[in-house]
Design brief:
Rossmann fold; UDP-galactose 4-epimerase, domain 1; 7-stranded parallel sheet; two-stranded parallel sheet; 40% helix; globular; binds nicotinamide-adenine-dinucleotide
Amino acid sequence: MNNLKTVVVTGGAGVIGSHLVDYLLKIGYRVIAIDNLSSGDRKNLPANDNLHFFHMDVCDKETRKIYESFQPSILFHLAAHYANELSIQEPEINLDINTKGTLVQLEIARRLGIKRFVYASTSCVYAPLSQAMKEEHEIIPHTPYGISKLAGEYYCNFYSKMYDLPVTILRYFNSYGPREGFNEYRGVVPRFIENAIKGLPIIVTGNGNEKRDFTFVKDTVRGTVLSAHMDEGKNQVFNIGTGKATTIRQLAETIKNVTKSSSPIVFSDRREWDETIEREANIEKAKQLLGYAPKYDLEQGIKETVDWYETS
Ligand SMILES: NC(=O)c1ccc[n+]([C@@H]2O[C@H](COP(=O)([O-])OP(=O)(O)OC[C@H]3O[C@@H](n4cnc5c(N)ncnc54)[C@H](O)[C@@H]3O)[C@@H](O)[C@H]2O)c1
């Protein structure tokens, strides 16, 4: 085995996970990717001698044996049952994977003396708010997904305090980008692109004035890697977004322009479970402590995403 430093990415075949794997390989790590391929795809991962893929479940304690043989320094825990809509249909599976899976990985991390455990949490833990959300803002998740991810945060905090395991909690805001294929449980970006390309109506659930902080996946990944490397990221919670809110109507129009689509934008009822009218990240903490600065504006990010759709 060569002397490269090793890191683990759980959920490594997923959308954000696979971009994270690419980035880590590029900056010279050996990467162990763990994924049960329930929503991820092996094809998202490159052929690379420094990448070791294991088709395993994060709830499986045997993952420890894999890690033991590679001695990783950082564990990026991204595997999850994703996201709100699916969690309403499968709340128990969601709890098992998101909360128990996190607990299993934390326990392994502390036993192996991992130097940093990075946990992919979500902006869905926040209570609704009509201004940019700060890390100390009130927490009231309103779906099983938000609840199970928040429980994961609490376990991270417990392991940090009780066992001195260095943890970093990241609350991602609407990450989107290439490799996110369309299906009914995924985010609004692939749904709109799919319909725009096919010339079908772009269906907005709500009046279109709802706001989200759409973050291009490469920015999400840069924030993730920065947080793991900086001492300032230790035992902290960070919002990883852009700090800019976009209305769903603007998103639909941007996608129409980029795809040169003539699809009509139509409006339907809000989804019953979705209590959040506006969700925008305040990213000052990540900017100041980590030097994080998103590079992609919405149009650039959507262009790269559409390119992937049109060529894959
Ligand atoms: N995409 C977003 O906007 C967003 C927002 C907030 C938080 N997050 C979090 O970021 C992480 C990555 O999200 P994503 O968008 O890449 O989703 P994704 O579904 O593409 O990735 C999740 C990956 O985890 C794998 N997985 C699921 N259950 C597993 C299990 N039991 N064992 C091993 N692997 C398992 C899936 O196969 C998939 O590859 C998740 O933790 C998610 O909760 C994402």
